[in-house]
């Protein structure tokens, strides 16, 4: 957020956004602060380098997709253990020594494919004991990093399918299968591009990171505030104007943000109080903002991660996804504006007073 926006957003809201998007820790020590600043910076520079033609022009640090995915995950795993506490009650003003240890081990396991790429390429399908140990530890640490950053549900879903993979013979007859050995399972999940280092991580490495970075830069430059002011200038004076402006501003913010949470906080901090001011109940004001912000993930060009997965799995260009997503996104926002208008008419609400510029003439 820009400095002006930060002053207007309550501290508890800023803390919530920081906790969800960049971790809940705010260490007081100089060294941890610098590490949590420079590691993301180096990660960003690496992604920019990988996405640019410079490695091929200069013939310096040219890496393939598998190596890039390995480095990408190593950065993410390190930050998951240093920026996110183990539990809600865990200390947030410093990083415990065990988290530093886990962060380094997780980063090593993730970067294992990059570090030993040539050795592993010379023995495909023949993992060593060290390969298997790294795979098991890396998979366990990845599940824990997922729990810290995204919560237990996604970790539980992944754990259920992992259990199904290894314990197939003990499942009910309808879904029973031969099962996979530890060697086969780890070779698939951690030591090849079929499991953890597969399509989803490739999309995150090659596309998602850059689009999120693009949106963050636009937001820091004040694009979100500009969209809100534009929406209110055009719709604020109409019947139920603040709600209509909330829908439009959320749609415009969705152009540069693929995060529904960031969209809600960016626009909702201003739109919800104004909707309540003209007569919308608090529940409906919140519902309008959430619906509009969630639809922001459907609004091109910066869409949710699912859009990038579609590109890889279906085999079409991202431009095609944008072309086909544009019309449904517009229709969804037109429908939301119409619903808001009906609600405003039903409750007999009016818009905000339109400012009148007076001159001395």
Automatic annotation (TrEMBL):
- Report the protein name in the record: TRAP transporter permease
Give the NCBIfam families listed for this entry.
TRAP_fused
Q: Which Pfam families match?
A: DctM (PF06808)
Membrane-spanning segments: 35-58, 70-87, 99-117, 129-146, 153-171, 196-218, 325-344
From the broadest rank down, the organism's phylogenetic lineage runs:
Bacteria, Pseudomonadati, Thermodesulfobacteriota, Desulfobacteria, Desulfobacterales
Q: Per the database record, which ranges form the TRAP C4-dicarboxylate transport system permease DctM subunit domain?
A: 138-355
Keywords recorded for this protein, A-Z: Membrane, Transmembrane, Transmembrane helix
Q: Which domain of life does the UniProt lineage start with?
A: Bacteria
Q: Which InterPro entries match?
A: DctM, TRAP_DctM-Dct_fused
């Amino acid at each position: 957020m820009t400095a002006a926006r930060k002053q207007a957003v309550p501290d508890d809201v800023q803390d919530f956004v920081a906790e969800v998007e960049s971790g809940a820790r705010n260490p007081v020590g100089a060294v941890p602060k610098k590490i949590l600043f420079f590691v993301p910076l180096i990660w960003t520079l690496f992604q920019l380098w990988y996405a640019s033609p410079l490695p091929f022009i200069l013939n310096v640090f040219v890496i393939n997709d598998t190596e890039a995915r390995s480095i990408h995950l190593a950065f993410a795993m390190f930050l998951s253990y240093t920026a996110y506490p183990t539990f809600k009650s865990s200390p947030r003003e410093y990083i415990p020594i065990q988290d530093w240890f886990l962060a380094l081990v997780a980063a090593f396991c993730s970067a294992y494919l990059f570090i030993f790429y040539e050795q592993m390429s010379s023995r495909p399908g023949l993992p060593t004991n060290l390969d298997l140990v790294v795979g098991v530890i890396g998979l366990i640490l990845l599940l824990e990093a997922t729990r810290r950053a995204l919560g237990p549900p996604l970790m539980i879903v992944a754990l259920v399918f992992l259990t199904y993979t290894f314990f197939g013979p003990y499942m009910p007859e309808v879904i029973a299968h031969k099962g996979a050995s530890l060697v086969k399972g780890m070779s698939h999940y951690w030591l090849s591009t079929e499991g953890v280092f597969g399509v989803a991580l490739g999309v995150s490495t090659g596309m998602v990171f850059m689009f999120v970075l693009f949106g963050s830069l636009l937001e820091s430059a004040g694009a979100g505030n500009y969209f809100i002011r534009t929406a209110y200038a055009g719709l604020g004076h109409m019947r139920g104007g603040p709600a209509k402006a909330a829908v439009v501003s959320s749609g415009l913010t969705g152009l540069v943000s693929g995060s529904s949470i960031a969209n809600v906080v960016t626009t909702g901090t201003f739109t919800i109080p104004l909707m309540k001011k003209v007569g919308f109940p608090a529940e409906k004001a919140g519902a309008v903002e959430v619906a509009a912000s969630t639809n922001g993930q459907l609004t091109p060009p910066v869409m949710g991660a699912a859009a990038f997965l579609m590109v890889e799995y279906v085999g079409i260009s991202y431009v095609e996804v944008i072309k086909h997503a544009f019309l449904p996104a517009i229709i969804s926002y037109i429908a939301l504006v119409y619903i808001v208008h009906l609600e405003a008419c039903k409750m007999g609400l009016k818009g905000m007073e339109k400012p009148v510029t007076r001159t001395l003439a």
